[in-house]
Design a protein that fits this description.
Blueprint: H1 2-47, H2 51-79, H3 81-96
Helix pairs in contact: 1-2, 2-3
């Protein structure tokens, strides 16, 4: 009986951790939308966008963020997160010059 209780506690912790990670993902996309919302007037004026093209640009930004997150996750799983961060730091230094 004690083993069953420990197993249910483990499953509950696992479910809560998955929910927490999913909530963080939603928070990050919400933050991204907030940043895009602040930039919209400048993009609209600079590129003289209509309502449809402005919506298309915002959708492409969001799609790019989603594809980037999925692609980075696969690369991090294959090579490791530490190596990815090292490559990002060196790449950023290279492009700053």
């Amino acid at each position: 009986m004690n083993t069953n209780n420990q197993l249910s506690r483990y499953n509950l912790a696992y479910v809560f951790s998955i929910c927490f990670i999913a909530a963080l993902g939603g928070l990050m996309f919400g933050f991204d939308l907030g940043i895009i919302t602040g930039v919209i007037p400048y993009i609209e004026h600079q590129f003289q966008l209509t309502g449809f093209t402005l919506g298309l640009v915002v959708a492409i930004f969001e799609l790019g963020a989603m594809i980037g997150a999925l692609g980075t996750a696969r690369i991090a799983d294959k090579y490791g997160r530490k190596k990815n961060m090292i490559v990002c730091v060196h790449t950023r230094k290279h492009f700053r010059k």
